[in-house]
Each structure stands twice: as structure tokens, then as C-alpha cells.
Amino acid sequence: MDLLPDSAPLATKLRNTLVQYHRLGDSQWRLAKKTKDATVWRKPSEEFSGYLYKAQGVVEDVTNRIVDHIRPGPYRLDWDSLMTTMDIMETFEENCCVMRYTTAGQLWNIIAPREFVDFSYTTSYEDGLLTCGISLDYGEVRPNFVRGFNHPCGWFCIPLKDCPSHSLLTGYIQTELRGMLPQSAVDTAMSSTLANFYSDLKKALKT
């Protein structure tokens, strides 16, 4: 089990990596899935052998409330159908923590339940917020779970200039599920999971 990293340099590096992704040109991305709630693109990841996914959609709510539903906290488990448990293991400051969470099986359990331990950081970005995370090799792996690994991931939530009660939510996700899995199953699951994330989030915000 590794020791916990120093939170400040890790948070800065993580934020800078996500801003780099956010500045990639449209030509770098290939369309993976489009629904009424979100569009998902992908490109080969520079961190591992899978893909970096980009998801984007307009959400009818203010930035702070949306991010409160996404980042570690009491709301996330209520609405995110993929997440089955979540515990805050360490808190560095109000916007910075280490969390352990588990996910449900997917694709008729071809993808078995997974466990992740992530460093999470939320900060301001332009007129909105960025909440981002990266997995840590920390804590004992619980039985019956494969330990997955999130390479730098994050969500930019920016109010629309002409309609501040709506926000543009853009996510960057690159999850290494690990274990013996066909890559095609992972790719199918990732695109659908990201599109469903938007529809589930929108329903939760309306309640």
C-alpha cells in the first residue's frame, strides 16, 4: 500500500492535465456516440492503451448545483446508477479528498463490479468549476472486486453566457478497468455509460 501523496502538487498537476485536454482541437476527436442529452467523442489515450473520452451536453441548472451532484458527496450515490458505494477515506481541505467507491457490473456482467480509490479535487475554472480526479494505489483491495484505475479525468461546468441558468458540462474520462476484458466490450460500455450519465444527472437535478 502506497502512502498518500502531497495533495497540493498533485492537485496542480491534475488541473493542468485536464486544461490541456480541454484545449485539444476538434480534429483530434472521433465521434463515438450521440444522444439527445450528450455527444461522446474519443481519441487514443496517452496514458494507457485505451481511449480518452470526451462527453459534452447542456444541463439545465446552475454550475454549483451540477458540480455538487458530480463530485464526492451525499448526492452522487442517490442518482448515479453505476456507483454502488462511496466512502471518503481522507479529506485534505474542503475541495480535496481521497474516496473509495465501487461500481456495478455492466454488459450483463461481462464487466464485473469494480473498485476505485481516487484523489478528487474541485477548483474554479473561467466562470465555472472543474472537478477532477485520478486513481491512487492506496488501501487494501476488497474481495470480490477488481481494482480499476482512472487516469486523469474531470468535468468542466461553465455557465452559458446568454443563459446562466444553463451550463455546458464537458467531461474527460479515461478509465482502465483492468482484469481480463475484451477491449470492444469496454469501448461499448464507456460510450453508453457517459451518455447515460447525462440523462441520469438531468433527472436528478429536476427532482
What does this structure look like?
This protein is α+β, with helices and mostly antiparallel strands and 207 residues long. The protein has one domain (29-154, 163-205): Alpha-D-Glucose-1,6-Bisphosphate, Chain A, domain 4. Helix content is 25%, strand content 41%. It is built from 4 helices and 12 strands. The strands form 2 sheets. Strands 1, 2, 3, 4, 5, 6, 7, 8, 10 and 11 form a 10-stranded mixed sheet that branches. It has a two-stranded antiparallel sheet with strand order 9-12. A hairpin with a 4-residue loop joins strand 1 (30-34) and strand 2 (39-44). The radius of gyration is 16 Å and the shape is globular. The mean pLDDT is 91. InterPro entries: StarD4 (IPR042555), START-like_dom_sf (IPR023393), START_lipid-bd_dom (IPR002913). This is STAR4 protein. Residues 10-207 form the START domain. One of its GO terms (molecular function) is cholesterol transfer activity. Pfam families: START.
